[in-house]
Amino acid sequence: MKSFTYDRATSAAGAAAAVARAPGAMFLAGGTNLLDLMKLEIATPTQLIDVQDLKLDRIETTPDGGLRIGAFVSNTALSAHAVVRRDYGVLTRAIQAGASGQLRNKATTAGNLLQRTRCPYFYDTNMPCNKRKPGSGCPAIGGCSRQLAVVGGSDQCIATYPGDMAQAMRVLDATIETVKPDGTTRAIPIADFHRLPGAAPDRDNVLEHGELVTAVTLPAPMGGRHFYRKVRDRASYAFALVSVAAVIQEDGTGRVSFGGVAPRPWRVEAAEAALPQGAAAVTRRAFADAKPTDDNRFKMTLATRTLAAVIAQAKAERP
């Protein structure tokens, strides 16, 4: 690990300005992903701005009946919150499907959304990687790609977004609140937050350097039955081969987001109209532009079968 300076922020705008002033500065919150990246020298910040004193750890109801979740709320606290368990069950189930209990105690809401890919080529610093070093190449294309994207990739990168929580946030239509270095704020719909790799796979999201996530807001509860089903190589502490976050209404309509298949939570709203016709009809539209490799073509079938299991469970639980 390379040397760096360390400071504790006293205000959100101050933290954003401090990071903006130094091209090599980064925010530090729970650190569950960043410290791993620093140990491997994939991330080499010259300055860390610790934001844990900013009191961004509250969960509050909003005037329109929704929920505002501070950026520093731990995954454990969020998944266990009574309102989340009652009205946003897909979020509780997604969080509890991820990582270990110890990691969920430290991982934060903002940090979870910002975590970087677990593509093995990204973590192997002896290999080129366009996401780690733009222009160096992508050996995953033509290499071992079993865990990697079947849709949304580019000729520069086929890494997947690794998180579970974001899949739930996507079907709930969450909004990410930020503060910029000049003190202004903005609200970013989660549909626009994570980027596809295109020709710039090193940029995972639309944040500017120094822009700090302060909260995530959820709209009023939408009702329905909430599901998160994750298929992985072992029963716990593993990233998804395929996951499905879904909210299914009594009439069979609903919302669906797929994880483990794309560089960002993969929700195609136009495909959701086919939910009453069954899983195959949905995935046929959601993955219409898929470009799987021989290694990961199985994910297409797995996504259909996982969604089919969710739909069957929703039907079985109808009163």
List the main descriptive attributes of the protein structure presented here.
319 residues; alpha+beta; 5-stranded antiparallel β-sheet; 3-stranded parallel β-sheet; 11 strands; FAD-bd_PCMH_sub1; FAD-bd_PCMH
Describe this entry's structure for a reader.
- The protein has helices at residues 12-21, 34-39, 75-80, 82-87, 89-96, 101-106, 109-114, 120-123, 165-171, 269-272, 279-286, 298-316, and strands at 5-8, 25-28, 47-50, 59-61, 67-70, 175-179, 185-189, 212-218, 225-231, 242-248, 254-259.
- It is of the alpha+beta class and 319 residues long.
- The strands form three sheets. It has a five-stranded antiparallel β-sheet.
- Keywords: FAD, Flavoprotein.
- Pfam families: FAD_binding_5.
- Residues 1-223 form the FAD-binding PCMH-type domain.
- InterPro entries: CO_DH_flav_C (IPR005107), CO_DH_flav_C_dom_sf (IPR036683), Diverse_Substr_Oxidored (IPR051312), FAD-bd_PCMH (IPR016166), FAD-bd_PCMH-like_sf (IPR036318), FAD-bd_PCMH_sub1 (IPR016167), FAD-bd_PCMH_sub2 (IPR016169), Mopterin_DH_FAD-bd (IPR002346).
- This is Aldehyde oxidoreductase FAD-binding subunit PaoB.
